């Protein structure tokens, strides 16, 4: 049971330099708007176009929703701390932010693996794709993603709730993240560190390995394509996906694989921004907007709005 005497935390934000605050406010506001509008456009386009009701786009829809939740749980509060001197966040709100962030983190990692598997089946077993990726399989994969994400979030949030926070209450970060909260705890955090380490090995490293294996089979299949144009297009798609996936997993693994005593929050803020802010903004561009079917779906949405 939580024995904390701290009722609120103070979030220091991305930087303490006043001359950088305005510039960063504009940058993060633009990032949030691009991520929010881009992912919302994907959600609307997929829901409204029956031609996009296929496994690949259903997983893209899920990824877009996760990215909206991830950025919305972090950026609005972060922008608020840049605008005002009121940097406080209640204990309850901090725990809620932590829960939704860790949920979206787990969901995104499993979705990347699921999407890589879907592309593996589509390219390596094209004639059996509809049979292998039937509606029941899609529901099962999304269900597994949700169970893993919720379990991951409940475990970490629950373990944080068991800790005692007796002061100081200053979070040297731009949101309620696990490492800075562990550094503020007055009680032992060994169990928390072990579970973070276990989650990093199983979720981050495990999912990244499975994703790379899927793309390894995909690349092997691409090499058997006879036309140079076909190879070029397939490699272009795979390479862009792998860049985004690597950009997401590398900082996640780096952040959570270390004990709390070794964190450097000034450096870690920039690293954390890669997977909390940059990747959700890049996902719509890399996974969707370069796709002709998605472009057609988005054009139909704009055409409907004009009328």
UniProtKB/TrEMBL annotation:
<dbReference type="InterPro" id="IPR000276">
    <property type="entry name" value="GPCR_Rhodpsn"/>
</dbReference>
<dbReference type="InterPro" id="IPR000725">
    <property type="entry name" value="Olfact_rcpt"/>
</dbReference>
<keyword id="KW-0472">Membrane</keyword>
<dbReference type="GO" id="GO:0004984">
    <property type="term" value="F:olfactory receptor activity"/>
</dbReference>
<feature type="transmembrane region" description="Helical">
    <location>
        <begin position="201"/>
        <end position="223"/>
    </location>
</feature>
<protein>
    <submittedName>
        <fullName>Olfactory receptor family 13 subfamily G member 1</fullName>
    </submittedName>
</protein>
<dbReference type="Pfam" id="PF13853">
    <property type="entry name" value="7tm_4"/>
</dbReference>
<keyword id="KW-0807">Transducer</keyword>
<feature type="transmembrane region" description="Helical">
    <location>
        <begin position="95"/>
        <end position="117"/>
    </location>
</feature>
<feature type="transmembrane region" description="Helical">
    <location>
        <begin position="55"/>
        <end position="75"/>
    </location>
</feature>
<keyword id="KW-0675">Receptor</keyword>
<dbReference type="GO" id="GO:0004930">
    <property type="term" value="F:G protein-coupled receptor activity"/>
</dbReference>
<feature type="transmembrane region" description="Helical">
    <location>
        <begin position="235"/>
        <end position="257"/>
    </location>
</feature>
<dbReference type="InterPro" id="IPR050516">
    <property type="entry name" value="Olfactory_GPCR"/>
</dbReference>
<keyword id="KW-0812">Transmembrane</keyword>
<dbReference type="GO" id="GO:0005886">
    <property type="term" value="C:plasma membrane"/>
</dbReference>
<feature type="transmembrane region" description="Helical">
    <location>
        <begin position="269"/>
        <end position="289"/>
    </location>
</feature>
<keyword id="KW-0716">Sensory transduction</keyword>
<keyword id="KW-1003">Cell membrane</keyword>
<keyword id="KW-0297">G-protein coupled receptor</keyword>
<comment type="function">
    <text>Putative odorant or sperm cell receptor.</text>
</comment>
<feature type="domain" description="G-protein coupled receptors family 1 profile">
    <location>
        <begin position="38"/>
        <end position="287"/>
    </location>
</feature>
<keyword id="KW-0552">Olfaction</keyword>
<dbReference type="InterPro" id="IPR017452">
    <property type="entry name" value="GPCR_Rhodpsn_7TM"/>
</dbReference>
<feature type="transmembrane region" description="Helical">
    <location>
        <begin position="23"/>
        <end position="48"/>
    </location>
</feature>
<feature type="transmembrane region" description="Helical">
    <location>
        <begin position="138"/>
        <end position="155"/>
    </location>
</feature>
<keyword id="KW-1133">Transmembrane helix</keyword>
């Amino acid at each position: 049971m939580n024995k904390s005497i701290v009722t609120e935390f103070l979030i220091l934000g991305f930087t303490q330099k006043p001359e950088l605050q305005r510039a960063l406010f504009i940058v993060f506001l633009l990032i949030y708007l691009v991520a929010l509008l881009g992912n919302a456009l994907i959600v609307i386009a997929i829901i409204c176009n029956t031609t996009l009701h296929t496994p690949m786009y259903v997983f893209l829809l899920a990824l877009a929703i996760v990215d909206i939740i991830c950025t919305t749980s972090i950026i609005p509060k972060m922008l608020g701390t840049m605008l005002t001197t009121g940097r406080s966040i209640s204990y309850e709100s901090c725990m809620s932010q932590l829960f939704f962030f860790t949920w979206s983190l787990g969901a995104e990692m499993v979705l990347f693996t699921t999407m890589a598997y879907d592309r593996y089946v589509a390219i390596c077993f094209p004639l059996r794709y509809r049979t292998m990726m039937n509606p029941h399989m899609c529901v099962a994969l999304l269900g597994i993603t949700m169970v893993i994400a919720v379990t991951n979030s409940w475990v970490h949030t629950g373990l944080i709730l068991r800790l005692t926070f007796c002061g100081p209450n200053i979070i040297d970060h731009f949101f309620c993240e696990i490492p800075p909260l562990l550094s503020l705890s007055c009680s032992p955090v060994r169990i928390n560190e072990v579970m973070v380490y276990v989650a990093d090995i199983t979720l981050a490293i495990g999912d990244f390995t499975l994703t790379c294996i899927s793309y390894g089979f995909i690349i092997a299949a691409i090499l058997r394509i006879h036309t140079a144009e076909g190879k070029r297009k397939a490699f272009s798609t795979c390479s862009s996906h792998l860049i985004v996936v690597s950009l997401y997993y590398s900082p996640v693994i780096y952040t959570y694989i270390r004990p709390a005593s070794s964190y450097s929050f000034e450096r870690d803020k920039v690293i954390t921004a890669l997977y909390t802010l940059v990747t959700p903004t890049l996902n719509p561009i890399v996974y969707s907007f370069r796709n002709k079917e998605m472009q057609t779906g988005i054009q139909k949405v704009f055409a409907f709005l004009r009328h």
